[in-house]
């Protein structure tokens, strides 16, 4: 006899097959893997307590903080970021690291050896190195301090990246809490887009730029028990992904199927506004190419049979892109967070609108007494939507 969960899954799969055809199986498999990954991260937040306290101790001693590793998207996701730690630099070959400096490195299976060597070189300089990535095939991570991505060793690049991003932001939240328990508040960025939504809001980021901690009389966080910040972030992520599946999944799959049916000579054009999502995630594929040309030439490039996929940010549909698609008499998929007050007729033109289901301000959780939310969810939403779309297109298993 089927359990209720198995019955629901059977009904869901039947509906998917009827609606989406062959796309249903890779999409459903991916949805299950992501759900399991978020749940695993939530079950294992205790693994973050000791690393967070080590990093807090190093920052209290005045040492620098860098992000590096093999994944440029992960580094961009964690630096200069609304809801992220403000005083974090990007590690480069010319960075003059010194004893006690903190370095977080990301890796995947194919870059493990190179990042293991990079970590060893930094540790010889007495840096505190945290390596983020999957458990090696041998079962024994070669790093002194290791943050498990909780993804399989043989996972595809984007899925490993997703696991590393969840680790990145949950550890950042635990670092904030560990610092607050020791009596100091780490400076986090406020979204630079909030002043656009709330005229008169001061440029908070300019007040604290270059600072690791707030001073007396400035915003502060009350102490928080270990694990609370990480779980709160993962709860937000879980709800966001649930809402994307509940309200947007059919539209995402339909966009993927449209991409998949196009010929190599007339692929869909992809444009992205994101910290993390850049061309190394998809490359030049059969069905979709990134458009890097002048927006003024977009209508000519699209033509009347063109298809634009805009993976945007909080600001709704950019008017200049909308007008270019309309001039071309083409169609588009707009994957964004709605802009309050923007009203467009998508159905009239055969366009699709997909809400990324995160809130303007791009920060997920409230820290006790702190003046801004922290820990951004947008990168997770964008990567999730992107990978569902490509699986529906048949571009990924």
Explain the layout of strands and helices.
Layout: H1 4-20, H2 24-43, H3 49-60, E1 65-69, H4 72-78, E2 89-90, E3 102-106, H5 112-124, E4 128-133, E5 146-148, H6 157-181, H7 194-197, H8 204-208, H9 228-261, E6 268-272, E7 288-290, H10 298-302, E8 307-311, H11 319-328, E9 331-336, H12 346-349, E10 352-355, H13 378-393
Helix pairs in contact: 2-6, 2-9, 2-13, 3-6, 4-6, 6-9, 6-13, 9-13
Polypeptide structure, described:
- The structure is a single chain.
- The protein has helices at residues 4-20, 24-43, 49-60, 72-78, 112-124, 157-181, 194-197, 204-208, 228-261, 298-302, 319-328, 346-349, 378-393; strands at residues 65-69, 89-90, 102-106, 128-133, 146-148, 268-272, 288-290, 307-311, 331-336, 352-355.
- By secondary structure, it is of the alpha/beta class.
- The chain has a domain at 43-232: Rossmann fold, CATH 3.40.50.
- Strand 8, helix 11 (319-328) and strand 9 (331-336) form a beta-alpha-beta unit.
- Helix 3 crosses helix 6 (157-181).
- The longest helix is centred in the middle third of the chain and has 34 residues, at 228-261.
Order of helix and strand elements from N to C terminus: HHHEHEEHEEHHHHEEHEHEHEH
Strand percentage: 5-15%
Major sheet, described briefly?
5 strands, parallel
Briefly note the CATH topology name of one domain: Rossmann fold
Q: Give the averaged pLDDT, no decimals.
A: 90
- Output the number of helix runs: 13
The CATH homologous superfamily of one domain is called Glucose-6-phosphate isomerase like protein, domain 1
Coarse morphology: globular
| Class of secondary structure makeup | alpha/beta
**CATH architecture grouping of one domain:** 3-Layer(aba) Sandwich
